[in-house]
Write a structure and sequence with these properties.
9 helices, 218 residues, 5-stranded parallel β-sheet, binds guanosine-5'-monophosphate, alpha/beta, 4-stranded mixed β-sheet, 18% strand
Length: 218
């Protein structure tokens, strides 16, 4: 049962192992669905070229971040790659204003905290087509050393263990169909017509398929 009122928007959380293509997928979803916008997180990492404070992130230093944690300003927060990231209650409320939905593009530990603290949230796990394909994509980025790729694959394996805490699992094997599947889930949750989609994108089934040994082509 949802605890939201009729006019209340829904917080959608999308999490995925690094290299799954989550950022690209989420950007396209927000571009194509005007009723949903990104929640703007806080982070202690440095601003990258082209990023804007208050639009991409609220960039803060670590003492400020810790002060906000102590004040319970965050719905969830986590350490990732030696930096802190968190979603403030305020970011969610701002996103949900006027009955709009909000999209949290966050890593897996944070998603589990949202599950525990926000009953109206809907959690979507994005899966790469296979571990082999994830490895190939990480290699293709050309940004990580062999050790770093190994480390990311280990993390991905551990993150996958959280998949059953999610409401849906969607495989990112082809960008446009992945975006279409996310949009279908978002719209169905809004209309309360999710039955078939819950089965089609069941995390338990996706995990089974993902972990099943692949049959080599004949
Ligand atoms: P990046 O530094 O590349 O922007 O993000 C690094 C990772 O942190 C990504 O997996 C991103 O989804 C995640 N992330 C961004 N904002 C938040 C947040 O507010 N909370 C959590 N838990 N993770 C976040």
């Amino acid at each position: 049962m949802s605890d939201r009122g009729i006019e209340q928007g829904i917080p959608f959380v999308v999490a995925a192992p690094s290299g799954t293509g989550k950022t690209t997928v989420c950007r396209k979803v927000v571009e194509q669905e005007e009723r949903i916008s990104f929640s703007v997180s806080h982070t202690t990492r440095r601003k990258r070229d082209g990023e804007v404070d208050g639009r991409d992130y609220c960039f803060v230093d670590e003492p400020e971040f810790r002060r906000l944690v102590a004040e319970d300003a965050f719905l969830e927060w986590a350490e990732y790659n030696a930096h802190l990231y968190g979603t403030s209650w305020e970011a969610i409320d701002r996103g949900l204003a006027g009955g709009r939905d909000v999209l949290l593009e966050i890593e897996v530990q944070g998603a589990r905290q949202v599950r525990a603290r926000r009953a109206d949230a809907r959690l979507i796990f994005l899966l790469p087509p296979s571990m082999r394909e994830l490895e190939r994509r990480l290699q293709g980025r050309g940004t990580d050393s062999r050790d770093e790729i190994r480390r990311r694959l280990d993390v991905a394996n551990r993150e996958l263990e959280a998949i059953r805490d999610f409401d849906y699992a969607v495989t990112n094997d082809e960008l446009d169909s992945c975006v279409a599947n996310l949009l279908a889930i978002i719209r169905a949750e809004r209309d309360g017509s999710v039955g078939a989609l819950r089965e089609r994108f069941s995390p338990a089934l996706a995990e089974e398929k993902f972990r099943a040994p692949r049959v080599p082509p004949a």
